[in-house]
Q: What sequence folds into this?
């Protein structure tokens, strides 16, 4: 399902339902069929979203470090689909590929 958000100040924008659920969970609100954010709520909502984005970045960074450690120690093999696609039919595994 596609969810439309309307704003007189910024215009309309759309989100898929799974993304909207993540956003609403991050701001500690329940996604409902209809709702409104008041101007007074926006600064707190923005702070919560900024915090959620920062937490997600930290988690991603930690996962990448764990991955790189595993590849570096030989416990895992890393590959990049973009790198493989650019090699034609040859499958080349690349450690620590960052695209």
A:
């Amino acid at each position: 399902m596609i969810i439309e958000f309307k704003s007189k100040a910024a215009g309309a924008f759309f989100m898929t339902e799974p993304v909207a659920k993540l956003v609403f969970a991050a701001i500690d609100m329940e996604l409902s069929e209809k709702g409104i954010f008041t101007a007074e709520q926006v600064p707190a909502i923005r702070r919560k979203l900024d915090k959620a984005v920062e937490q997600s970045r930290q988690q991603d960074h930690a996962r990448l470090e764990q991955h790189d450690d595993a590849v570096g120690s030989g416990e895992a093999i890393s590959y990049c689909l973009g790198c493989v696609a650019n090699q034609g039919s040859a499958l080349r595994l690349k450690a620590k590929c960052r695209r």
